[in-house]
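Moderator note: this is an archived Q&A kept for reference. The question asked for a predicted structure of one protein chain; the sequence and the answer are reproduced below.
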Amino acid sequence: MSDLLKEYVGLVLCSLEKSWVPEIDSQLLERAKETRIGRQWLVSRLSEHPLFCQPIVLFRDAEPSLRTTNWWRENLCGDEEFLLKLGGFVCRAQLRATVSREQVMQWRRVLGEKLHRDLIRISTSDTDVNAGESAAVSGDYSDAELSFEVRRIGYLEMKGQAMLLGPLFGYRVELAYPRGWSQQATAGSYRIRLSPRSFNEFIAREAELGGR
């Protein structure tokens, strides 16, 4: 396995979410992530996951994409704040259309005032918006429920965008978040909203949103 693929596998294991290995104590899991032997042990515990059942040729075929796409190296996977930003970005048309003071205030509480303001100010011409590119959150949610729903949309969008590039990118996202979320992503109930161009533009400007 090349150094690039070793780097990829190492990053996947270092951001592994606990629910994928529920039988392992949390402290033991964190210690295992820190050493090469520990990460090899984690691979053995994940032997039934599709990532570790793939023939080596799949990894080799993915190398060109891994070399030309950098976001999988960044500390985005497993980042709840990133999901909140992406989910809010996908819902930005709804944010602009919301006029009820009560709903506006709830969005501000959930997203934070600066992120809410930044998302509303993004010009549609800057983000390749089309009729099907925005998602909407419907229902009578508490703040906690709305926050979860926006982050869930962010995860499903990120997973879908990653799968467009290939399964290795999808697994990078999948293993960094709760196991149950991956089942929703494959259930067919969500379709990605952003064009690849819009997604890449979001990645490029993500650090500026909300003052991160």
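Archived answer notes: Residues 85 and 209 are 7 Å apart (CA to CA).
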